[in-house]
Design a protein that fits this description.
Blueprint (H helix, E strand, L loop, with lengths): L3 E8 L2 H8 L5 E9 L15 E9 L5 H11 L7 E2 L2 E2 L5 E5 L2 H17 L9 E4 L3 E3 L7 H4 L16
Parallel strand pairs: 6-7
Antiparallel strand pairs: 1-3, 1-6, 2-3, 2-8, 4-5
Helix pairs in contact: 2-3
Length: 163
């Protein structure tokens, strides 16, 4: 029997993150959207202070939140403020949108592990923000790199596991 849970992450352009997470073991669904901003019903053209983020639905019997975090910290640079690749601005910040104390504890522990590994050029600047609402992005942003396989992405797996 499935034990479905959700994780909310942001680490730059949502297209690349979705494309990599969609095929991870235990991940049942992904959806790109907006998190942590100032307005209701954000759009690609109007999402002040929202991060381009990803809703990950996963089966906790097959993978864990810590494993989701481990992969998250391997596919984007968490040591850059408001930037991934050529993308700049708060929309592209590294952030985890926390739903409960267990997620907060797991996130803080993973950040400690990543920092101690010294694999990135600087300290982790990923913010831990309270999850409030996920706003799905427009249809043409969903599964973007499936539709446009040569589309832009700055995400790729950089190292083996931190765990």
């Amino acid at each position: 029997m499935e034990n479905l849970k959700k994780a909310y992450v942001a680490g730059g352009c949502f297209w690349g993150m979705e494309d990599l997470f969609r095929v991870r073991p235990g991940v049942k669904d992904t959806e790109v959207g907006y998190l942590g901003g100032l307005n209701d019903n954000p759009t690609y053209r109007n999402h002040p202070n929202h991060a381009e983020g990803l809703e990950i639905t996963y089966d906790a019997n097959e993978t864990s939140y810590s494993e989701i975090l481990d992969y998250f910290f391997r596919i984007h640079d968490p040591s850059t403020v408001d930037r991934q690749g050529n993308d700049r601005g708060s929309s592209y910040r590294s952030a985890l949108f926390i739903q409960d104390d267990e997620q907060r504890s797991d996130a803080m522990e993973m950040i400690r592990i990543v920092d101690e590994s010294k694999r990135w050029p600087g300290k982790v600047v990923t913010t831990l923000e309270p999850f409030t609402k996920f706003w799905p992005a427009e249809d043409d942003h969903q599964d973007y790199l499936v539709t446009y396989p040569n589309g832009y992405t700055c995400h790729f797996e950089r190292f083996g596991t931190f765990l």
